Amino acid sequence: MEKNPFDWNHPDVYQYENKIKLKIPCYDMLYDMTDRLLTVKLPKQADVLIVGAGGGQELVTFGRKHPEWRLTGVDKSVQMLDVARKRLELSGIEADVVEGEVNNLNRERLFNAGTCMLVLHFLKDLNEKREFLRQIADRLEEGGPFFMASMNGDADSESFRWQMLAWKQHVLANGISEEEWEAAVNAIGESSHPIPSADVEELLREVGFTQITRYFSAYAIDGWCAVKGGGKRSGILS
User: Fold this and answer.
1) Which of 23, 55, 132, 163 has CA atoms 20 to 30 A from the CA of 100?
2) Integer distance in angstroms from the first to the last C-alpha of the chain?
3) Pairwise CA distance, residues 1 & 183, whole Å
């Protein structure tokens, strides 16, 4: 039986850190750009929520550069959180790591900023995606920045197929097997559920985000920054 490439409780998740950089073009740049945009938007001391923190990329990227920030990572995969904890330990970074969903977090605690990288496309339908984003928005302070990346597009469109064929060349050139690539493609509609970028932006608006800007794009992966509500924060972009 073909293994689900997006089973975050499978032992293979311990290879995630090494393989994800081979699969997504400019993966490190995505996180570096996110960090730089956050840096100009936040004060020196900030409380940052990281949703889907398993793997630890945001925790390590932000923690190395901003030891004054308080980082809280949440993820429902025990195995992926193990990866994050090990990376934190090796890096000497302190962070709060929480097993569970966003809605398990205390609603009374509002974060200065939030991120959610490469998660939204795993939620099945628009209602589930909308509620997920609403739960995040509810835990950010007014004017707080939010950064999100996901796989997007109309899976039945010719333009999406074009992107995927080019993306396939990229991953095969990086040593990912064709079998692994085909497993990921076959998972679209089963365990991954991309939607057009315009629909993602509409969902962000519906749950209360403004100033929505796409700042990253690599084949079918897009990244956005937005602001909770219409409030203002200190910083050169405010």
Assistant:
1) 23
2) 52
3) 11
What would the mean pLDDT of 217-228 be, rounded to a whole number? Answer: 97
Query: What count of other Cβ atoms lies within 10 Å of the Cβ of residue 92?
Result: 9
pLDDT in the model for residue 17: 73
> Tokens representing 173?
């050139």
User: What tokens does 32 get?
Assistant: 């570096």
| Percentage of residues of the chain with pLDDT beyond 90 | 84
Helix or strand holding residue 226 (H, E): strand 221-228
Integer CA distances (angstroms), 142 to 151, 230, 233, in order: 27, 7, 9
Predicted local confidence at residue 15, as pLDDT: 64
For residue 49, count other CB atoms closer than 10 A to its CB.
Answer: 27
Structural domain boundaries of the chain? 11-228
Question: What does the pLDDT look like over 172-184, one tens digit per residue?
Answer: 999 999 999 999 9
Query: What is the per-residue burial (b if ≥16 Cβ within 10 Å, else e) of 63-84?
Result: beebeebebbbbbbbebbbebb
Question: Hey, which residues does 75 pair with through a beta bridge?
Answer: 99
Cα–Cα distance, 37 to 46 (Å, whole number): 14
Fold type of domain 11-228? Rossmann fold (3.40.50)
